[in-house]
Structure formats: structure tokens, C-alpha cells
Design brief:
The N and C termini lie far apart (56 Å). This protein folds into 2 domains: 20-99, Immunoglobulin-like, CATH 2.60.40.1120; 120-473, no CATH class. A 10-stranded antiparallel β-sheet has the order 10-9-8-17-16-15-14-13-12-11, with helices on both faces. Strands 3-2-5-6 form a 4-stranded antiparallel β-sheet, with no helix packed on it. It is built from 14 helices and 17 strands. The longest helix has 19 residues, at 2-20. Helix 5 crosses helix 6. It has helices at 2-20, 120-129, 131-134, 175-178, 198-207, 226-240, 243-248, 268-271, 338-348, 389-396, 400-403, 420-427, 443-447, 456-473; strands spanning 23-32, 43-46, 52-54, 60-66, 73-77, 84-87, 97-99, 140-151, 156-168, 179-191, 272-282, 285-294, 311-320, 326-335, 352-363, 366-378, 405-417. A hairpin with a 2-residue loop joins strand 11 and strand 12 (285-294). With 474 residues, it is an alpha+beta fold.
Length: 474
């Protein structure tokens, strides 16, 4: 009898545990109603929650929704389209979703006490002034998924996928000291960069007390310990494309607009000009679509030991009409000065040095980041930089598609946690943003965690990388 009761108790506990982690898988493809073309970066989320994802370049998505939200509304929206809505429990995974264009008309509104700006510059400045009102003003945690990859024009050279937690004390606080990131779990990690990273290693030696005249062409890979090379790669990632830099640096443009060297700081109009383009609709709300163009001064990032100056800004910013909160930012830094143009063409074969997209979602009256995309070219073995380079490269059979590299970081945010006790409990743990640290694969964790769906091309490149990484280890 006692054994039967014990068995029954364990069975009930097991069922309760399964129920707690039960998920409803929602997946489909989103396309334009008129053109049948896939809609990339459409938002897919559970209304009045932070559970969501975005569609990939093929218009496809997968979202895991906790079963307790089965009677909540699933929203599929994209700027300039009418939203699609259905109960989570009634969503049909087999029927492709088609979104129709939604055209807005700008009503004339006159408010004597708060006159509405009429041009792009005025609207953006008003939005920056309202950030303290529209951004989180209390400590919070966000759970996120990171896909960080490096590739040349042919193949991936490195891929890592991680689950992480972000802590931010509030918009008003400085992010350098009051924003933290912890890597919780790793899902994939393939690395072939050590065969291409002598340039990073030479730079590492020069900037850490070595020979200032040292050049990568004077190094031999077979004489360098792998552990030393890994240190150089970590150092290079940390100063350029580390996840810490992305959130604590100038490129977290909206969050860090109140810092001394902010891109959207007090001198915003000296570095940028903004032109009102049109009025669009996002999930029934009007928003300004504003073009970002160059101003009188160049834009720079003040990166230590790297000439990261001489740019002009291009892109778009989308701002809600009703409360001036920023919905989306598409931002590029393009080589503009003569020095930066020569440098960019020689080292990267492109003038676009930084490409950033940040999308925000409203939760409890505040705007939280929901999706981040960041792309930048990267220095590896750069070969001959002389005036005869093209001739020499042709003679040596060097393939430019293999020579030039760029790195991409994609981040999907899901859960927002505002509970003070939970936050304090999390902060007592040891935090580390080191994506290189070896962590065992946790299969049960990833079964219940929302990730970004790979595109068909990405899936193929990742499969190729995984095979090559296995052969390289052997």
C-alpha cells in the first residue's frame, strides 16, 4: 500500500512538472497579400506579454507558447500592414498567413499647450526628450537568445548560440556600471577561426606590450599555441563585437542616448539630419517613418586603438505618433571621410562599417528591446595591401569571397521580469558574459526555450560548418 501511494505521488508530481513546462508550438510563414513575397522581421507575439519572436528572411517563424497562454491572443504584425490576430489555441499551423497593406492618413491635431513638431528633426528630438518617460524606469531582467556568427562571402567560419539574461537598473542609469549580462546556456558552438586569425593574434601582441612593428605575414600558425590564439580572438571580440559592447556602447543608440558620447545625444543634429517620409500603421497605431541622413559633422565611435571615425549615418527611425516612443531603428554607418573610405575599401571591400536594427515592444506602458540585428566587417588575414594588390592576388589565386569577413549578432528577447525578489535572487549569482566558456549542452532547457528560426540558406551553411568543424577536430 505504501509503495502504491509513493508511486501515485511520484506520478502526480511528474504530471505537474510536465504541465508546468507544457508548450504550444506555433509556426507558419508570413507573406504579402498582393506580391506573395515573404515578410521578413514581422513580429509574432502573445498580446499583453513579452513572449514573441520574428520571422526570418523566408518569412517563417516558430514560437513556443506556455500552455497557460492558450486562451490569449496571438498577434502577427509588421509595420505598414494590418495585423493578424487569433487565439493561441485556435491558430492553424498549416495555413500560410497573408498580411494586407495598411495605409494611414495623418489627422491634423492642434494642441496649444504642446505644439506638435512638423518636421523630422523636431519629431526625433521630441522622441529623445520623451525617452525617460517611455523607457523602463525600474530594474528589470530580460531573457534572450543570441546567435553570433562570422562568415566570409562563401561560408560560415564561426557560430555560437546562447541563452542569456540581461539586467538593467533603468534607463536613467549609466549602462557601463548598471547593465549586466550573463550567458546561461550554450546550444551550438562551431569554430574554424583559428586557421584565419593571425591578423588578430598580431594585433593582440602589438597592443599588449609586444613588438609594435609585428605583422601577421611574419607569423606561422604551426608555431602558435591554440590557447594563445584563443586569447587573441577573445580580446579582439571583446573590443569590437562582444555582447557587452553591443549593449553598453554607443551602438545601443536609444538606451544609451543619455551618455556623454551618445550618437543620439545633445549634439544629435550636428551628426544627423532627419526627414519625415510618411505615416504608417503598426497594429492599429500610427507611426512616423523618418529618414536618417548625414549632417555637418562626421560620426565616430571612439574605439580604442582602432580608427572607427569618419562615417555618415543612414537609415530609418519609426516613432509612434501618439506618445513619441521609438518602435524601430534601422541604422548604418557608412565610410564618408577620405581616410575611412580608403581604409574600408582596402580592409573590408565595403563602405558599410556598421549595420544595426533594433525593434522595441511595449510592455506595461514601457518600451523594451525585442529584436536586435548587428552586422560589421571584421579584420582577419587581410593579405597584400600594396598598390599592386589586385594583380598579386590574381597571380596567387586569392579568392576575395574567402578573404573578406563580417560578423553578425542576432538577438531575440522574450521574457521581461520586473519582480524585485526574483531580480535580487538572480543578482546574487555569479554573472559572466563570456560566450567562450565551455558549458555542457542542456537538452531539456532548449526544448522549452524560444530561439530564432534559421533561414534555409543559414541552415545549409551551418550544416556545412558543423561538418567541417568535426573534420578539423579529427
Amino acid at each position: 500500500m505504501r509503495n502504491s501511494l509513493k508511486y501515485f505521488f511520484l506520478l502526480v508530481m511528474s504530471l505537474c512538472s510536465m504541465s508546468a513546462f507544457a508548450q504550444i508550438e506555433v509556426k507558419n510563414k508570413i507573406s504579402d497579400f498582393l506580391t506573395f513575397q515573404p515578410i521578413e522581421s514581422a513580429s509574432v507575439y502573445v498580446q499583453n506579454s513579452t513572449i514573441g519572436t520574428v520571422s526570418n528572411v523566408d518569412g517563417k517563424f516558430v514560437l513556443l507558447v506556455p500552455v497557460e497562454h492558450k486562451n490569449d491572443t496571438l498577434v502577427i504584425s509588421s509595420i505598414g500592414y494590418k495585423s493578424y490576430k487569433a487565439l493561441v489555441s485556435e491558430f492553424d499551423n498549416s495555413e500560410e498567413i497573408f498580411l494586407e497593406e495598411d495605409i494611414a492618413s495623418l489627422d491634423e491635431v492642434v494642441i496649444v499647450s504642446d505644439p506638435r513638431p512638423t518636421d523630422g528633426n523636431g519629431i526625433v528630438v521630441r522622441a529623445i526628450e520623451r525617452l525617460e518617460r517611455n523607457m523602463p524606469n525600474q530594474p528589470y531582467l530580460q531573457k534572450g537568445f543570441l546567435r553570433h556568427r562570422e562568415r566570409n562571402k562563401k561560408e560560415y567560419k564561426w557560430l555560437i548560440e546562447s541563452a542569456f539574461t540581461l539586467y538593467d537598473s533603468s534607463f536613467a542609469s549609466g549602462s557601463r556600471k548598471n547593465l549586466k549580462i550573463n550567458i546561461d546556456e550554450n546550444r551550438k558552438s562551431y569554430d574554424l577561426r583559428d586557421v584565419d586569425s593571425l591578423f588578430a593574434y598580431a594585433s593582440y601582441l602589438r597592443y599588449n606590450g609586444g613588438d609594435k612593428k609585428l605583422r601577421s605575414r611574419n607569423l606561422r600558425r604551426d608555431t602558435i599555441k591554440t590557447s594563445s590564439l584563443v586569447k587573441a580572438i577573445k580580446w579582439n571580440d571583446g573590443r569590437l563585437t562582444g555582447i557587452d559592447n553591443l549593449f553598453k556602447g554607443q551602438l545601443n543608440i536609444i538606451r544609451n542616448s543619455n551618455t556623454r558620447d551618445a550618437l543620439f545625444g545633445k549634439d544629435i543634429l550636428e551628426k544627423h539630419q532627419f526627414v519625415l517620409d510618411t505615416i504608417l500603421v503598426d497594429d492599429g497605431r500610427k507611426l512616423y517613418k523618418i529618414k536618417i541622413t548625414k549632417s555637418t559633422n562626421f560620426v565616430g565611435l571612439n574605439t580604442e586603438n582602432i580608427y572607427n571615425e569618419g562615417f555618415e549615418a543612414r537609415g530609418w527611425i519609426y516613432i509612434y505618433y501618439d506618445n513619441y516612443s521609438v518602435k524601430k531603428l534601422e541604422y548604418e554607418l557608412v565610410a564618408a571621410s577620405d581616410v575611412q573610405k580608403r581604409r574600408s575599401k582596402s580592409l573590408f571591400d565595403t563602405n558599410v562599417n556598421h549595420k544595426l536594427t533594433i525593434t522595441y515592444r511595449e510592455f506595461n506602458g514601457k518600451m523594451y528591446p525585442s529584436y536586435v540585428y548587428y552586422e560589421t566587417p571584421k579584420l582577419v588575414n587581410i593579405g597584400d595591401r600594396s598598390s599592386d594588390r589586385e594583380k598579386n592576388e590574381e597571380e596567387q589565386g586569392i579568392d576575395k569571397d574567402e578573404q573578406y569577413y563580417y560578423t553578425i549578432q542576432e538577438i531575440l528577447f522574450s521574457e521581461v521580469i520586473e519582480d524585485t525578489e526574483v531580480i535580487q535572487s538572480e543578482l546574487k549569482k555569479k554573472w559572466s558574459s563570456d560566450i567562450f566558456a565551455i558549458r555542457p549542452y542542456n537538452e531539456s532547457f532548449w526544448k522549452n526555450y524560444n530561439v530564432l528560426l534559421e533561414s534555409e540558406e543559414e541552415g545549409k551553411l551551418i550544416r556545412d560548418l558543423s561538418k567541417k568543424a568535426s573534420l578539423f577536430k579529427e
